[in-house]
Protein 1
Amino acid sequence: MDFRRVYDRRRSASDRWLIVYACENGLPHRRLGMSVSRKVGPAVVRNRLRRLYREAFRLTRDRLPPGLDIVVIPQGPDEPSLDQLKDSLPRLLGQIARKLGKRT
């Protein structure tokens, strides 16, 4: 996945837990990328957040619009619950899909 292409498309949505960027990828499936800054904390904290966000993506895949490249950026070092992420990710991607003109 090309992160620059996703960022250049400038389609994003955010809430208290994460910032989500997305753009079309021309494929029948979704692709996930994560950008976790060192400002979030040491490697242990960053890796924990990556695992948590990846699991939320896996569990909500059927509720997400297909054909998107998605970049997820944590908003801070606070760790959300898995349930909060499972609610947040589909909602934010739905907002972006509407901006892109995709069906959810």
Note: The beta strands are 12-14, 18-24, 31-34, 68-74.
Protein 2
Amino acid sequence: MLVQLSVIEQRYQAVLAVVQDGWKVTEVAARLGVSRQSVHAWVARYEHGGLAALADRSHHPSACPIRSPRRSRR
């Protein structure tokens, strides 16, 4: 049975792979399909703020409002 991990858990495992297990940031990034800059940011955020700092900080709305179609000008 597959268990889907939360975003925080995935980031925490990435951080641990770098900090504790000695993986290279580029290896972790490639394995997760993210940029190395993201992994560096997660490590820094974890070191400064612990597990809570790994939460998603996106400012995008969770749902995009329905937009009316544009009317062409004639």
Note: Helices lie at 7-19, 25-32, 36-49.
